[in-house]
Design goal:
homopentamer; rod-shaped; transport (chains A, B, C, D, E); 7-stranded mixed sheet; Beta Polymerase, domain 2; 9 helices; transmembrane helix (chains A, B, C, D, E)
């Protein structure tokens, strides 16, 4: 969730390929799926050149690259498909703002894939770059630890799925859709935790509660930053006159756009709820302070005058007529009870107790 | 009022029909009304196919479907009328953002119907989907527990009502209008409660008061989220060049648009009032703390020096000349009164009492 | 200043005439003024039909209707002049948002007339509806208690006034102008009160001060809600290609538009001033708490150790050598003075006193 | 800095000339400058008619009117130059919002000239109206106490100045430029004072500090209100297709526009700095309260148990074995030191001291 | 980081050259680089006239001027290249708002170069002006202390660099890019410091922590002010139909635009994080106050009643039967333990301890 280091890039020529992600080590894994309505072939390949044998239409080629450590893969990809060096640079620079850019021959979409670590409750974000061509789609993922595309793969295996009958632009929609759906999952998780904290807030709020609120606030801030530009990107895809997006797909992209707006709405709602909770917390802290102070004041107001009285008759003056009185002691006891009781009545009247 | 679970949908093919609402069990109930200026026939039907016999113009067919548990109804509806699968999916996904979408042959409007449970004070929201065709209107409601359309039905029974003489687009307006009017009812309720809390705030504010303010704030937040997109939707209906909206209806939709703007205005006003109340509350809590502390300080400031004096003459030193004085004790009493009185004058001057 | 009840309207057919205002009883009073450059005739009439004899141009007819209780008046007006039922409904629904709507044959403007009750300091708002036709202007006022149009009437009586030589659109401008000017009057009043409260805030702020600030805040909120849409309405009038607005009047409407912007500016300034005052108040409350606590702490810090010392020598141990010392008592006195003085020096150094 | 009284204007016919400014008394002073590239003549004149002899081009006539008390001057000006009555009214109404309005034959610009009184630190604002015609510029100033135009006059005296060679539109730019530059001067002053307060805030903040912050906030609010609309006005001048603005001047107006944006930027920055300072102040007040309370608590926590112990052995029971012990007194002293020291260690550990 | 003094400029003719920067003394240093794809020549020159010998295309001339103290350099530059006096004035006025202005023959870009002083943590800002012509680029820097262009120079030395093969518009992009990249570096620094403060906030927050937060807030405010207008400037460059920007460069400018948006995003995120931290701080201060007050109240509530009891039996009344009891003293001890223990149980139950 912190800011990625761009320092090493400062001043380099644009288009210089430098890996900025976290997972520097580890192999780069390339998966290839080729399909049309009747056939589907999926295999792992060694190098990206093997994927680049262009198949005749309507066969769709989906190349999924996991891990960005191997710069050679990117260079080959760039030179074979004629991808602009700035796009290659963007794929590597894993702190990209989500966007969709039309380069005529191909369309470049970059966004964040979000998952929530169940145990630590930490958000994990991984950059996904999608390059859509006439009959291919290449997806680049930052990490190797798995992705959210499993369901798309199983839909592809189903021969009757609409996905099989349509072009790579529909595959693009499917991948974007599943990523956006995962934002919903994360927001549901966060919403559950907000409800937990809410109960805590009423029962027994502590400083840990505030820190939890604050941590959630930052996660929402992070999600907002990662998601907000996506709305614009999807909106531009849906309006796109690019011939790469078929008319039948546009209606699905509009549906996707509705989903992105809904994610943002939910984000906004959760943020306002958290703000309200902070207010509740602060007002409950003030209230408890008030209560504590009332207890202190009541005790002091009752016992300070009494201590004065008993101190008075503890003085050692030679001539103190009350000391000689037979009922002097009982009078002091009575007076004390009177003062104490009177104070209690007074506090009752002021609604302090 | 919480976020609906979309989890089960993540990664499914778009257009997959899955029920997301709460009321999964229970039958789906279908009511059919067919009317023109001179005739009206209303009956319950078993299956939706029975409604789909297209009547010649100007007869208007209104099919009202209560409950979304029976997916077959939707499938039949979709295939007979040629409704896009994404629309069917949206009807089922009961966490839709309000919107109006033009599909050429038909118009799809989705929004939230709001009622306020009188006893618990809980908001209840139910999704209503309206599909407007050339000579039919199909309305889908999420729940079975009744709706706000009763008044529209009785207006339909009145042969002279303008509603009878006009097309299904006017019926669409009538249904939207009655839903928007119910937002006014809910806001009036909330406004009454705000006034109650306001009185409480001045008389005797407690933590419960803050929690009530907060609960109302969240209800308004929820209403805002449910209503805000409706303005855009109605605005698009009113501008619509769709041939499904007749010119005579447009002026009524403009009137409806004014109502939606007014609902939003009222929402905004109520939210600002609640914010102001929180400020009042916090400042009154600080004030009371101040008052409590003043009482404590006054008591302590008066009795601590006095206790010191009486303690002084309670010492057991052999040689303490004052102890021998005949009027020593009275001097202490006089001194105590002087100090106490002087303190009171001082506090009076500083306006503490 | 509260929300008007729309409940009774929920679900009724649009255009149903139901009175929503407060002044249900009392007669409806109709005043008629007919004028051109050389003649003027003003009289009260019994029923609105009498006003509706259309005079040849350039005679201007101004009908002013006070009170909306008599629904017949509206019905007649509507049928004679061909006014749309929705407009008639809007005239009656006295919680309208200010707006200007062009119906081709006539122009409908609705807004709030604001006065401030001198004694109670309560805002009074009354809805004014203006219907401008080719050669007539009909104004509807909610209440019977007088209006702000007196000055317009006296200008009409002056034969040389520009008002007499121009059409009903200029009369419309005159009425709008005088209503907007009254907002200035109200804002001046409120501004004076803010200055009073400001002085109070520095001299001796109490909870009543906060409540006064809060009341003013709500009044400004209410004024903002009542006025804000007027800017749009006047702006649309000034741009209007409606042939009902003559070119010579447009420049005056632009001037009126400048005034509305200025009212909004002033509203905004006053609101920000009030917010700043709340901050001042809160910080002064904290400061006084600080001061109170300092007094308490100083007293306690001086006298608690002293009380310990005198308590020490009040003990009844058999063997306490100091008690036998001749100057023991004076030593304690000296020690007490030393400790007390030392504490005071310490507090002086810490700038507590 | 308060709201000007418009009360007397309410309901008057538009274009009625009524003086609203503060300086009602005092003569109106008229200065005339006529210049072209080779000649310049400057003189005071008695009445405005003397200025109105139109000179042949390229001679530029600049008439500067100081003081608005003499309504005749305005009336003459209006009738000779064919100025619209609403413009004359605006010149007199000294609470105008800055604006630029194109009346074809002439251009009307109105804005606020700001100076800061060095001693009292009060802002002084004076309305300046500028009427630009084909070969003349008339400037109206509200007050008589001098202006900021001196430097423009001395530039005019310099024969080689670009100002001499160009038309009255360049003179308009020069006057606007010098007024905008004075906003910078005022903001620099305020910025210096903010820095002073900042030092105070860290050294020794008092209630006076908050009031100073608040006063500056209000001054910035006032400046913002007076300046904000000017941006729009200058922007419209620069885009103006009015033939009164020559092409060579447009580039200078664009430069002026940049300056207005910069003034607004600076205003915004200063406002945010002040807000931050209030936060600092409040948090430092809370901190000091915390500190004060810690001192009190430490003292009370140490001496209350000790007082109990010495009180215990001050009791007069017949049978109290400790009293007879030889080292009883020393034990109490030792115990007291132990308890006191233990408490101090405990507080040290909790980082209270 | 303070506001630069514009005072001396007020009222001067536009285009008057006055040095406003800080580094008034010191020589002005001029560096000249001439290059095309095959040749590169770099040298320092004495006066700017030496740079102005126009080379034939495609040779690119880059003149870098360090220090603005020598006004002659600017005057020569202006007259040789036909630069508008207002541009020369802008180059000198080192408080310019970033902008890009198209003057047809040349393009003027001005922006702030930011560095962060490692030790003091102070931001340093230096104005950079860039004038782009057909085959030259002139860059003006305010100070002499070095710049961020070193990497661009070394890229120029590399014969194979794309920079060598392209025109001066690509050099413009390279310089802008390296400046924007330095904003990232500064933001990373600030982000690191925010994380440090965050740890401090949880461990042991002090007033110094708030002041550090506040200082960072002001730095971000300053950065925002310096950077925000740059987005617009770069956006206008990228859309520019100026023939000075070649089509091949536009795609790089779009990339640069993405970077500026990202800088602004990051700025916004950091600002929200700081705001959240202030909330955390305030709530932790209130919490600690609460804790302190609880300790005080617990101590007082336990020992005040006990002190009353022991005081009671320290009274010197003649007739006090308890004093004679054999176990009186032990009863008091027992009673004290009972009261103290009871109080502790009570506080435990209220969760105070």
């Amino acid at each position: 969730m912190s800011i990625r280091k761009r320092s090493k890039k400062a001043g380099l020529a644009p288009g210089t390929l430098i890996h900025m992600g976290r997972a520097k080590t580890g192999a780069t894994r390339i998966d290839l799926v080729e399909y049309d309505e009747s056939h589907l072939e999926a295999r792992s390949v060694e190098s990206i050149e093997q994927c680049l044998v262009k198949k005749p239409l309507p066969t769709v080629t989906w190349v999924n690259v996991d891990g960005l450590a191997d710069l050679e893969v990117l260079r080959h990809f760039g030179s074979c498909y004629g991808i602009h060096p700035l796009v290659l640079e963007d794929i590597l620079a894993t702190d990209q703002r989500p966007k969709a850019a039309d380069y005529g021959e191909y369309l470049y979409v970059v966004l964040k894939m979000i998952t929530l670590d169940g145990e630590s409750g930490e958000l994990k974000s991984e950059q996904v770059s999608l390059v859509l061509g006439q009959n291919y789609l290449v997806s680049f993922q930052e990490g190797l630890e798995g992705d959210v595309f499993e369901q798309v793969r199983s839909r592809l295996n189903n021969e009757k799925a609409r996905l099989r009958a349509m072009g790579p632009d529909f595959l693009l929609h499917a991948l974007l859709d599943v990523i956006v759906d995962h934002y919903f999952l994360v927001l549901e998780e966060i919403s559950d935790r907000i409800e937990d904290i809410e109960d805590e807030l009423i029962d027994n709020p502590t400083t840990a509660t505030v820190q939890a609120i604050y941590r959630l606030k930052r996660q929402l801030l992070f999600l907002h930053k990662a998601f907000w530009p996506l709305r614009e990107a999807v909106s531009s895809l849906q309006r796109r006159d690019s011939q790469l997006i078929r008319d039948t797909t546009v209606i699905y992209l509009r549906d996707l756009y509705d989903h992105t707006v809904q994610v943002l709405d939910t984000l906004e709602t959760l943020r306002e709820m958290l703000s309200g909770m902070l207010d509740i917390y602060l007002s409950s802290v003030s209230n408890r302070l008030n209560e504590v102070m009332k207890v202190l004041t009541i005790i002091a107001t009752i016992f300070m005058p009494l201590s004065f009285i008993v101190g008075l008759y503890g003085m050692n003056f030679k001539y103190m007529p009350e000391l000689e009185w037979h009922y002097g002691y009982y009078m002091v006891l009575f007076l004390s009870a009177l003062i104490g009781g009177g104070m209690l009545v007074y506090f009752k009247k002021r609604r302090w107790i």
